[in-house]
Design a protein that fits this description.
The protein has 265 residues and is α/β, with parallel strands linked by helices. The protein folds into 2 domains: 155 residues, Periplasmic binding protein-like II (D-Maltodextrin-Binding Protein, domain 2, 3-Layer(aba) Sandwich); 92 residues, Periplasmic binding protein-like II (D-Maltodextrin-Binding Protein, domain 2, 3-Layer(aba) Sandwich), CATH 3.40.190.10. Strands 1, 2, 3, 4, 5, 6, 7, 8, 9, 10 and 11 form an 11-stranded mixed β-sheet that branches. The longest helix is centred in the C-terminal third of the chain and has 17 residues. It is elongated, with a radius of gyration of 19 Å.
Length: 265
Amino acid sequence: MSIQSLRCIALLLGFSTMIAGPARAVDLKGEIAPTGKLRVAIGISAAGGAFWSNKTESGAYAGVPVDLGKEMATQLGVPVEYVAFQNSGQITDAASKGVWDVTFLPQDPERETKMSFGPVYEVADATYIIKAGSPITNFATLDQPAIKVAAVNNTTTMRGARAHLKNANVTGYQTYDEIFNLLKNGEIDAFALSRDQLNKMALKIPGTKVLDETFKKTVTAVAVPLNHPQALAFVTKFMTDARTNGILRKAYDDNGLKDAPIRSE
C-alpha cells in the first residue's frame, strides 16, 4: 500500500470522527466555506483534460473541476462560486491569500509546501509537441542549445521540463493560448504539456508532431489551503467516494473525456 493511500485512509478515519455531531458540521462549513460559499479555484484554457476548465458562450464555466466543485458544494449544502485563474501556478500563488477554498490541480513537492493534497484522480504523461517543419524527432535532438521550449509558467510541467532538458531553453508563459499561437506561428520549437492535450493540439496545427517519449508523469489531485484539517478530510472522502459512486466518471464523460480512463497511479 502506497504512502498516498495510507494518508487517505487516515484522513477518512478522521473525517468519520469529525462529523459525529451537528457542532462538527458547523465547524466544517466554517473552515471549508468561510464566506458561506464554496469557492472553487479553476484554471481557464482551451487545452481540455481533467484539470483545465473553460468559459462557454453563455458565460458559464465548464470542466471536470467545475462539475466536481458543484457536487462538493451540494453535499456541503452551500452555493458554489468559481474563482478563475490563467494557470495552476497562479492558483498556487493564491493559496495563502484566502481567495479560494478548494481546487483540483497538478501536485508536486513544491506545491505540497503551499497546500494540502487529497487523493490523486488523474495521472498524465508529459512530453513535447514539435513545431511544423522541425527536424527534431526525439529528446536527444530536442535538448540542444538555442532550442526554444515553452511551458505554462510556474507549473509542475515547466519545472519538470527544466529539470529534464539540460541544454534547451525552457521559457514560461502565462497562458496555454499564448503558447499555442507561438507554436502555430513557428516562434518556438516545442511546447511541454500532457500527451493527451498535445495530441489534440496536433490536430489543430498541421505538421506538428508529438514525441513518443515521456519525461514526467503529472498527477492531478484535490487540494485545500494549508492548516485546514477538516476541509482536507472532507475533500478526501468526497474524492474517494467519487471514484466509486460514478460522480468522477460522469464529470469526465460530460466534459469530452468519455474515452479517457481514470488513473490514480
